[in-house]
Amino acid sequence: MGRIQLKSVTKSFGDVQVIPPLDLTIEDGEFTVFVGPSGCGKSTLLRLIAGLEDITSGSIDIDGADATDVPPAKRGLAMVFQSYALYPHMTVRKNIAFPLRMAKLDQAEIDKRVEGAASVLNLTDYLDRRPGQLSGGQRQRVAIGRAIVREPAAFLFDEPLSNLDAALRVGMRLEISELHERLATTMIYVTHDQVEAMTMADKIVVLQAGVIEQVGSPLELYRTPRNLFVAGFIGSPKMNFIEGPEAAKHGAQTIGIRPEHIAVSETEGEWSGVVSVSEHLGSDTFFHVHETGLAETITVRADGEVGFRHGDRIHLTPRADVIHRFDAQGLRIE
Amino acid sequence: MARAVTTRRKSLNTILAWAVGLLIFFPILWTILTSFKTEAQAIASPPIFLNFNWTLENYAIVQERSDYMRFLWNSVIIAGGSTILGVIIAVPAAWAMAFVPSKRTKDILLWMLSTKMLPAVGVLYPIYLLFIRLGLLDTRGGLVVVLMLINLPIIVWMLYTYFREIPGEILEAARMDGATLKEEILYVLTPMAVPGIASTVLLNFILAWNEAFWTLNLTAVDAAPLTAFIASYSSPEGLFFAKLSAASTMAIAPILILGWFSQKQLVRGLTFGAVK
């Protein structure tokens, strides 16, 4: 079981309040991702849940029991750190066994569980090596192994993939998602990468300056962002924002239209502009269009076969049913 | 670009380094040489460098007159005891300052170091009186405590610099893994800091071994270490250079050998943290 409930939690460092009063419930078995730009308080929030930082006020319940003053060791949570934080002087076996040793399990049980975790994570051949002799991906797996042997109520991941190279990151992302499917344990995952958030999460919590901007499933956030910040943060390439008369036409201060919701044409369309940069990804092409009179740049996502080049004048047509409207406060207008 | 060093420049540097090294080492070399001379040769003018009748007589006399082993044992106990006790106290202190720093941590560290600037003689009187009151005069236990206190700032400082190099996340991982504070320090921090702790131990053992002020002032017979052993040869009946040299050589030999074998750790310990 791993239902985690934050009630009016705040955190201040000295006079600076980094987390204003915040309420959040993470259901048992849910894969929750905290996402936001750096310095938004997402790691701090995770560390509050872990107990590595004391909350300034409010309370944290884990499985219905007040865990606010429970030390990290007794909260029944396991954490995977950005730097892996393996014990460099211990072998992989000892690293994975460490939490079990601390729990005073008998040796036979420890061996059984370590072997089990190692085989799940493809680490069996590396059990007698030291972390220094492993690659980044293997170290990451050891860190995960050390977390799963404890059979925790919830896993906490603090940007676990940011030290890996791009290819490995995609692989580990899948492995973590599979692990979640198999264990069905609550996972809380912190990242600044919205792609990780979108691909892995059951529930995304978008944070900015310690404040929750929106909570919802990846598609909810994509389809109905509650405000300009979430609209701009979720989705890649970023949503286009248009102000002025064009927005007024839709009865809004600002309208937002995603690059993938704009059709391009050589001959006709609602808007027109000049291609400044075209990025060919093979499957897709991104056009950065200037001189539209709407915004400085309009980004358009088109099929990989579309071949406009720098300096070409093109015509754009937004899909009317997916135009997002925001008021003067930046809030969504339904 | 690395600076180009010519061969000539290199050999000049080598010669200079050797010259400085020999200059520093010369008093010790002279002491060792003198210890093998007769008393007459020891004070001969002009001084005799190597061309004398080598003799072990001084060593025999010194050993006959005073029990070297007893002094040696006292030195080992006092230097070893104060170092071990110091490390046991300093590890948690350095842990706290390195991993749970407060606004005042830097000030506390500087304050601790500033106690080393105080002339020892300034506290001799109160400590002497305390020792009389507590019956600690001429006891090894008393000296262990005093020398530990004298060197504690250095031990804490050295360990603090070492601990600062250890990523805090690893200790947090231990905490998440269910380790108590004691287990965290015992199973994670200490093993990771072993090289640092080793050089700290070595340096402080040497400092305690060489410490003369307190050992001479607070001991008489029972707890007298090798410093007292040497001092006993600058005797009122006149200076016997050859015997004094023999005693000195015997006193510094163990620490010289220890230092020789551990120079790598010592250099590493003293320069640790200077370069990442």
The chain-level mean pLDDT of chain B equals 86
Trace the largest sheet of chain A across and list its strands: 6-7-8-3-9-10
User: How are the strands of the largest sheet of chain B arranged?
Assistant: 1-2
Order of helices and strands of chain B, N to C? HHHHHHHHHHHHEEHH
Any chance you could write out the topology, listing elements then pairs?
The complex is a heterodimer of chains A (about 325) and B (about 280).
Chain A: E1 4-13, E2 16-26, E3 31-35, H1 42-50, E4 57-62, E5 65-66, E6 77-80, H2 92-102, H3 107-120, H4 136-148, E7 154-158, H5 166-183, E8 186-191, H6 194-200, E9 203-208, E10 211-216, H7 218-223, H8 228-233, E11 240-243, H9 245-249, E12 254-257, E13 262-265, E14 271-280, E15 284-290, E16 298-303, E17 313-318, E18 324-326
Parallel strand pairs in A: 3-8, 3-9, 6-7, 7-8
Antiparallel strand pairs in A: 1-2, 1-4, 4-5, 9-10, 11-12, 12-18, 13-17, 14-15, 14-17, 15-16
Chain B: H1 7-34, H2 39-42, H3 57-65, H4 68-99, H5 105-114, H6 121-134, H7 140-164, H8 168-176, H9 181-192, H10 194-210, H11 213-218, H12 226-231, E1 234-235, E2 238-239, H13 241-261, H14 263-271
Antiparallel strand pairs in B: 1-2
Short description:
The complex is a heterodimer of chains A (334) and B (276). Chain A is an alpha+beta fold. Chain A is 27% helix and 31% strand.
Features:
heterodimer, A: about 325 residues, alpha+beta, Rossmann fold, OB fold (Dihydrolipoamide Acetyltransferase, E2P), six-stranded mixed β-sheet, five-stranded antiparallel β-sheet, 9 helices, 18 strands, about 25% helix, B: about 280 residues, mainly alpha, MetI-like fold, two-stranded antiparallel sheet, 14 helices, 2 strands, globular
